[in-house]
Amino acid sequence: MNLHLLIPGLFWPEAGRSEVYGGLSLSALEVILAKSHCAESQSQGIEEWLCQTFGVSKQQDWPIAPIMLQLDGTDEKPDQNEYWLRADPVHLRIQNNHMLLADSQVFSISLKESIQFADTLNQYFSKSGIVFLPLHPDRWYVRIAKIPCLQTRLLSEMIGKNINNLLPIGEDSSAWHSIFNEIQMLLHTHPLNQEREERGELAINSIWFWGGGMMPQNICSTFNQIWCDHAFTHALAVASGIASNPLPHDATMWQRQAKPGNHLVVLDTLWGKTQYRNIYEWRECLSSFEQRWFIPLLEAMKKRVISQLTITVLNEDSTRNFIMSHNSLWKFWARAKSLSSYGLN
Question: Are 186 and 120 in contact (CB under 8 A)?
């Protein structure tokens, strides 16, 4: 049995801050990393890595919207000739001439609110052929009859960033920048936002367009089973016909349920904590992973329950693959070192 762990945000993104790791007991993880062969490549967003892993080619964007529509759509199922965009609700904050973006990790929004916001936008934009479909509270969609010449950026890469110079590009970008500005004006005065602010909640004051494309013809993978709570991973599994399961509480529970073959486990909860620079919760989550996953997985490797363990780490500066086999355990010269040393640029 082979196991591949995808762990975005395993290393703290700010180089040189070794104190972030102070007091953490991560002996199993440190042994696994030290005994593994490491290959490094350019940084990737989680959706980009998943698309490449499932054989999905980049169109103008990585086609997240039509793939996710397989999950979120009820009556709406993507035809392979239809172009879809994600249009997710976000909160923008102006700070020092920067426009900083926050996603639904830091605010809550109900489906009822989403429908009300979308109704307002549709009253304004429907004559232009743009219809917003809030099929999930924080996952909205737009179907576009004519494919725009437009390239967008993944929402997951925009969190906490100044978006002033990161808006869509391409021949049709100026028109979409205008739409972007008009949406902000419509949402700024929306009664729902006044109610949200009175309750102490963040206003939904903008939309982020991203992940546009048409449904890929072939989605496939070498994995036999997938374990995750990550929506896009689950959507790819459904599209490829691979068995997808909720993420088990720990590696011991996973071993009880897993069948022979190649497994992908997505541990993505560290990712948002690095994006929002939430050091305390990142440390707590990493410590929990050590107990629930790394300690039992190292023991499973020693007992030859797992033939090969691969850990893919996505960070803002790089993608790293750590590959460990049975023979790796005999690398007596490969001594464990502090996790902080892996975070240095």
Answer: yes
What kind and span of H or E run contains 151? Answer: none
Name residues whose C-beta falls within 8 Å of residue 314's C-beta, 6 or more positions apart in sequence.
6, 7, 8, 9, 43, 44, 45, 46, 49, 271
pTM here is 0.92
Residue 154: CB atoms within 10 Å? 19
Helix or strand (DSSP H, E) at 32: helix 27-35
Rama region for 92: left / alpha / beta (φ>0; ψ in -120 to 50; rest): beta
Strands 308-314 and 2-8: parallel
85-89, 215-219, 281-285: lowest mean pLDDT where?
215-219
Closest CA to 200 of 108, 115, 277, 116: 108
pLDDT in tens, 76-106: 565 667 899 999 999 999 888 889 999 999 9
For the record, the structure tokens of 249 come out as: 């509480």
